[in-house]
Specification:
Layout lengths: L3 H15 L3 E5 L8 H6 L4 E3 L4 H13 L3 E7 H6 L2 H10 L5 E5 L17 H5 L5 E4 L4 H12 L5 E5 L17 E4 L5 E5 L3 H7 L6 E5 L1 E3 L3 H8 L3 E10 L4 H7 L5 E8 L10 H7 L4 H12 L1
Parallel strand pairs: 1-2, 1-3, 3-4, 4-6, 5-6, 8-9, 8-11, 11-12
Antiparallel strand pairs: 5-10, 7-9
Helix pairs in contact: 1-7, 3-5, 8-12, 9-10
């Protein structure tokens, strides 16, 4: 069973054979896996070493020449560490790249805080015109990666995770998918949070929406699901409340409440496992059922 990261490496290696405009920039992470592609395309698979600022700078330079660069490393090293370069070398220069991360909020607890990035999407929200994909399954990751590469010259962030749902959904980039319909509120599950949300809301009279793309935010989809008086719960695999302002803006003309669930700001200083971290954050199915039920009923 492959992971989202495995699928990214496989698909991107094949895309390099098909698209002479595509380039991949690495900062040691996944470099060995891309070695066969680098042998075939030494001028378009570049490993800059552990120099994350240069990673983004090189991607920006390639974009300025007309290439479509993919920059890849762990989320904390792709968004947080080189954020100034993301802001200046991509956005300020008016060029686009595809940033593909791994090890998001809690994927590698033994790696410690340096390898956790629950604030990555919130940080990108300070910049204009980003597309952000958060797939919940390798099949969705492949579909959204192909969409990102073909998405003109836009800046796109593809957030990959070891945490995944059991089954893929037929997602459409930029649109929420209705998974279950109800009348007492809307629960929006982002990416790998869907399975826990479905278990948590089993038997509850609530609509469940699924988002594999969170930016741009599907305001029309949320409005259609919410009705004229809306109670909305957001369940995100990164910083709690990251999409709350988007939900408020979508529902600004009608009475509504929004509860944002996700990774808390407080740091959990124990290694543990992904399931243990989710339980500590209140993102396991049992905790979600209590929190969602208290809010909606």
């Amino acid at each position: 069973m492959d992971t989202m990261r495995d699928r990214f490496i496989d698909v991107t290696s094949r895309l390099l054979d098909e698209d002479p405009r595509l380039a991949v920039v690495l900062a040691d992470i996944s470099a060995a896996a891309f070695a066969p592609a680098q042998q075939r395309h030494p001028d378009r698979v570049v490993n800059v070493g552990i120099r994350e600022q240069l990673l983004i700078g090189a991607a920006g330079g390639l974009a300025l020449t007309g290439m479509r660069p993919i920059a890849h490393t762990f989320a904390s090293f792709l968004v947080e560490r080189p954020f100034e370069q993301v802001k200046l070398d991509l956005v300020h220069q008016g060029v686009g790249a595809v940033l593909v991360s791994a090890a998001g909020s809690y994927d590698w607890p033994a790696g410690g805080r340096t390898h956790m990035s629950p604030g990555d999407v919130a940080l990108l929200d300070t910049l204009p015109d980003w597309t952000v994909h958060v797939p919940g399954h390798p099949d969705e990751a492949e579909q959204l990666l192909r969409h990102a590469v073909a998405d003109g010259d836009r800046n796109v962030y593809v957030r990959l995770s070891e945490h995944r749902n059991a089954q893929a959904l037929p997602v459409e980039a930029g649109r929420f998918t209705t998974v279950r319909q109800g009348s007492r509120g809307v629960v929006l599950a982002v990416g790998p949070m869907l399975d826990a949300v479905l278990a948590a809301t089993e038997g509850l009279d609530a609509t469940v929406l699924y988002a594999a793309t969170v930016r741009p935010f599907d305001a029309a989809g949320l409005r259609a699901a919410a009705g004229e008086r809306a109670d909305v719960v957001l369940v995100e695999p990164y910083l709690a409340g990251t999409s709350a302002n988007e939900a408020h803006a979508a529902l600004a003309d009608r009475p509504h409440r929004v509860l944002g669930l996700g990774v808390p700001r407080e740091e959990h200083r124990h290694y543990g496992s992904i399931p243990e971290h989710l339980t500590a954050y209140g993102l396991d199915a049992a905790s979600l059922r209590e929190r969602i039920g208290t809010f909606l009923w």
